[in-house]
Amino acid sequence: MIDNKYFNAYKQAIKDGRYLANKEQLQLVEYLDKMIQTRDDIFFDVDMMRKYISFSEKSFFPLALYQKMLSSFVFYYWKDGSGVVFDEFLITLARGGGKNGWMSTLGAFFISPLHNVENYDVTITANSENQGKVSFEEFYEMVQRQGLEHHFHLTKMSITGRITNSVFKFRTNNPKTMDSARDGCLFFDEIHQFEDDRPVRVQRSGLGKVQDPRTFYFGTNGYIREGFYDKQLERAEKVLKGRGAIGFFPFICKLDSIEEIDTPQLWAKANPMFNENTEYSRRLYKITLGDYENLAEEPSGRQEFVIKRMNFTEGDGERDVADYKQVRATARDIPDLTGRSCVACFDYVSIRDFVSVGLLFKEGDKYIFIQHSFVRKGFLDAFKPKAPIEEWARMGLCDIVDEPSIDPRHVVDWLIKQREKYQIEIVCADGFRMDLLKPLLEKEGFEYEFIRNPAGVQAKVAPIIEDGFANERFIFGDDPMMRWYVNNTYIKEDKMGNRTFLKKEPVRRKTDGFHTFIAGLYKRDCINEFDIGADLDYLLGLEF
Length: 544
What we know:
The structure is a single chain. The protein has helices at residues 5-16, 23-36, 46-59, 65-74, 99-110, 129-146, 198-204, 228-240, 279-294, 302-309, 324-328, 377-383, 389-394, 408-419, 434-443, 454-470, 480-487, 512-522, 532-540; strands spanning 42-44, 76-78, 88-92, 121-126, 152-154, 158-161, 166-172, 183-188, 214-219, 248-252, 341-347, 354-363, 366-376, 398-401, 423-430, 448-451, 474-475, 489-493, 499-503. The longest helix is centred in the first third of the chain and has 18 residues, at 129-146. It is α/β, with parallel strands linked by helices. Helix 1 runs antiparallel to helix 4 (65-74), helix 5 crosses helix 6 (129-146) and helix 16 (454-470) crosses helix 18 (512-522). The model has no long low-confidence stretch (mean pLDDT 91). 38% of the residues lie in helices and 19% in strands. The chain is built from 19 helices and 19 strands.
């Protein structure tokens, strides 16, 4: 058993009720106890940890209980000399939780002679120069305040440890201007704004040139779904359930349910600073409580408060098609559907940006949807939608086509290919631009129906959509692009109670896949819920 008094103190505080932890923190404790602390091939460098705490608290500020616990696992090493045990850390907590301060202490320590690793460069990457400079300036001012210029050389863009020749610097999130440098440690701040993993991939490709490489991801919940932040939460879930490889350390602070927003005593689940009895924590709590009380007069600020102060994704119950958990619930495995009956559908309303085509199957009370999209390269270059389209293309979820407008033949060719495997009963789509598709579908022998009143159809299927998401009846497989389409859609209800589905943002947030799904649901009764292949095998096996 590894002796770690900082981890033990954290656990004891939770047990005694002095530290309020959410579900993910409790899962982390269990994971560490079972999977890490019991190993005999790992050692905790207690001396390095003591140096770090002494340096941080003398130069910066007293560390919080959770910061000490986290820091201790930064200094876990494999006994065989292969380096650090945890080379990636995910830190996500509510605004004001102390992430930038902790980043400052670690970065400063890593380039100091106390860490004593030569050329251990540290880089902070953020979405703006101002955000990237927060920890840099804190470190810079500490050096001046403490009179440590004999240990650190200061410039406006970097701080260099004179003894180790290690450099602390910051940069903005622009993959085009990045290269794979010789960093020892990478800090990625505000990862909730990262649309994909490109800035991370580029910089992490340079790790390994210096011993003990580490990467830290910091963020608070944001508005971009299916981006880099959500991917890290998926990784964290696997690790906390014991299914991920050792090396990724997830520290997640958030409410366990949205109902807890109305109980201020539980806010420490999202912001661990509220577990501390310090002047800073009391001031932060007072500000947060004031923001909460203002919601009574300004309810439009609720979503921002939930996301930033409670680190929780609630969405907009009046407008969103489904909440975050309901959309994530669609990511279940698609069974073998070979030979099964289905409805084909597509959305070809706009031919200069996105076109989506799909197949809808039914199995019991579940609807299974397989979609594929075609994306025009010129649109991506001009408008740069907030989504990892290139990554989704590599996953096979879409094709990026370089042409003036998206050729309707792409849709028909995809349907022809799918017809070789599935039984397509009918093709359904919005009637707009059908003069282009109709002759192609007729030539290939597809039965089709074009929707003449899309608003009326949407009102009809709205209850099916609401029920389907609420009761987890929809299965999209591992398709982040389809989830993105859903998250980009909002509901508008007229005075008669009729609902239509519209775009949250007119240009960069596309909804084509969701409207394709609507067309499929409209013709759902055309799906035969028996296995044609199995029935034919049965008939052929009969002796007459």
